[in-house]
Amino acid sequence: MTENGGVTPLVRLENVNKHFGALHVLKNINLTVSRGEVLVVIGPSGGGKSTLCRAINRLETIDDGKIVFDGQVLPEEGKALARLRSEVGMVFQSFNLFAHKTIRENVTLGPVKVRGVSKDAASKRAMELLERVGIAAQADKYPAQLSGGQQQRVAIARALAMDPKMILFDEPTSALDPEMVQEVLDVMIGLARDGMTMVVVTHEMGFARRAANRVVFMADGQIVEENTPDEFFTNAQTDRARDFLSKILTH
Ligand SMILES: Nc1ncnc2c1ncn2[C@@H]1O[C@H](COP(=O)(O)OP(=O)(O)O)[C@@H](O)[C@H]1O
Ligand SMILES: [Mg+2]
């Protein structure tokens, strides 16, 4: 299910526009993400990538256009919005764990509070997920006792604990020391292989080549190019993308 034809997309953005004051940050965005697809979003800083992610789970409102998630137009507020949020996981650059909760509690909290899962069941599941991301041994520690790479893996386990229909990753490895990047990417590659629908803002081209079905190049609020990773990285179509790639490839 890597193609858009024939399958109902999980997410569809139609003519989406967003301004911050006079700044036009999303310019008539049209984009679909299919179920099971891994979409990598790449592009210069300030291009609107984070705003795009935040609009998809409605951490940002849009001015006009439409965002449809799993067949429903994004709800404005209330219970329907809370449900949507719980179905779309988000992993940020800064891990955003609760500092005063243990690792296991961080992963347990959402299912208990939002889903009404029993503490025991949530705790058991949390351990399975921590096992999956390779940090079960740290379950009773606090976030500050873990490395950045470990904390980001906890953040991924926490997102998974809600059984999301998709996960948005906004530069998940940008704040990490270089030696920790791969351990987080490996977890993400595993999720991609297991069929998780993922939108990943990243400049990690190794990840894009191994895991992405499609790359979207975004600059100045617009989708400038959309292609397979192989085509995009070896045969970018626009000067804008070629220029960007030459910068990230030679830094
Ligand atoms: N809350 C906000 N208020 C005003 N301007 C914002 C806000 N968030 C982002 N911007 C601006 O919108 C543009 C797009 O930002 P962003 O989506 O964060 O880009 P990217 O993630 O590609 O770096 C930037 O010029 C940024 O300064
Ligand atoms: Mg950003």
TrEMBL record:
An example Gene Ontology CC term for this record: plasma membrane
Membrane topology, as annotated: Peripheral membrane protein
Localization, UniProt: Cell membrane
Keyword Lipoprotein among record annotations: no
UniProt catalytic activity: a polar amino acid(out) + ATP + H2O = a polar amino acid(in) + ADP + phosphate + H(+)
Start and end residues of each ABC transporter domain: 11-245
EC number: 7.4.2.1
This protein's UniProt keywords: Amino-acid transport, ATP-binding, Cell membrane, Membrane, Nucleotide-binding, Transport
Stored PROSITE patterns: ABC_TRANSPORTER_1, ABC_TRANSPORTER_2
InterPro entries assigned: AAA+_ATPase, ABC_ATPase_HisP-typ, ABC_transporter-like_ATP-bd, ABC_transporter-like_CS, MetN_ABC_transporter-like, P-loop_NTPase
Gene Ontology MF term list: ATP binding; ATP hydrolysis activity; ATPase-coupled polar amino acid-transporter activity
Primary location: membrane
Family: Belongs to the ABC transporter superfamily.
Annotated protein name in UniProt: ABC-type polar-amino-acid transporter
Organism encoding this protein: Nonomuraea jiangxiensis
Organism taxonomic ancestry: Bacteria, Bacillati, Actinomycetota, Actinomycetes, Streptosporangiales
